[in-house]
Design a protein that fits this description.
The chain is of the alpha/beta class. The protein has a single domain, classed as NADP-dependent oxidoreductase domain (TIM Barrel), CATH 3.20.20. The chain is built from eleven helices and ten strands. The strands form two sheets. An eight-stranded parallel sheet has the order 3-4-5-6-7-8-9-10. Helix 1 packs parallel to helix 9, helix 2 crosses helix 3 and helix 7 packs across helix 8. The longest helix is centred in the first third of the chain and has 13 residues. The protein is globular. The termini are far apart.
């Protein structure tokens, strides 16, 4: 992944260009809150917006994009199918519902939000169909480990183009990054700032002082230099702009490796093998 500027992209396995920096809108509320956040992000140069059926704000995302004056084709939109909507007979309807709420004819990326046991494989088969029909430009999964990716691979056909997982200096899972690289799957980080917890780390603070950057900017730059696309979430103008200002410096290899050593397998969200307990 070549890092250039905020308009830079990573090329997915099917040739689609996906921005490597985007805006996450988890917990952003429909109405002025999400409208303002997306407006500020687009003005700052962001061209990827990541939402999900579970977030309950697809309507707000669609409205903000329509009002932005920027062509739909120039904005990369991701959404995700929720746990209860998965299955052979319900996946197609879930996509149609998301598209209707967004006011769009297609999605750039559609992800299985969590790998529901006994359902995510049949859901994937339907996503393959929807992809072939052109309703989705790229398909992928979220919150998966290697064994789930291997199960999907065993189905044959179109494979995931993106894996979106919790990823930050305390949860790197380098073996998954390497698996994705070997199998042409773009790794993407949710909760890249560990819900703010990582910003108090002394090593990251020291590096931030060196470059005269914020701790968040150091972490997001680290993401990209690890080859990981990233979608920090914020509804605040200053933070949205700050998160995008990471293209005028470069971490040294030693600094990247030093941050890598912070990993201790800390999760802020559910484990991909035990998430049903979390959401029950």
């Amino acid at each position: 992944m070549e890092i250039t500027d905020i308009l830079g992209t990573t090329i997915l396995s099917n040739g689609i260009h996906m921005p490597y920096l985007g805006l996450g809108v988890y917990k952003a509320k429909n109405g002025e809150e999400i409208n303002s956040a997306i407006k500020e992000a687009l003005n700052a140069g962001y061209r990827l917006i990541d939402t999900a059926a579970f977030y309950g704000n697809e309507e707000g995302v669609g409205k903000a994009i329509r009002e932005s004056g920027i062509s739909r084709e120039d904005i990369f939109i991701t959404s995700k199918i929720w746990i209860e909507d998965q299955g052979t007979n319900t996946t197609r309807k879930a996509l149609e519902t998301s598209l209707k709420k967004l006011g769009m004819d297609y999605l750039d990326l559609y992800l299985i939000h969590w790998p529901v046991p006994d359902k995510y494989l049949e859901t994937w088969k339907v996503l393959q169909e929807l992809y072939e029909e052109g309703k989705i430009r790229a398909i992928g999964v979220s919150n998966c480990l290697i064994h789930q990716l291997e199960e999907i691979r065993s189905l044959g056909g179109v494979q995931p183009m993106v894996l979106q997982n919790e990823f930050h200096p305390k949860l790197i899972q380098q073996e998954i990054i390497e698996y994705c690289a070997e199998n042409q799957i773009q790794y993407q980080a949710w909760s890249p700032l560990m819900r703010g917890e990582i910003l108090d780390n002394s090593l990251i603070h020291k590096i931030a002082e060196k470059y005269r950057k914020s701790e968040a900017q150091i972490v997001l730059r680290w993401d990209l230099q690890k080859g990981v696309a990233t979608i920090p979430k914020s509804i605040h103008r200053d933070r949205i702009i700050e998160n995008a200002n990471i293209f005028d410096f470069e971490l040294t290899e030693y600094e990247v490796e030093s941050i890598d050593k912070l990993e201790d397998n800390t999760r802020t969200g559910a484990h991909p093998d035990h998430f049903m307990e979390h959401f029950s």
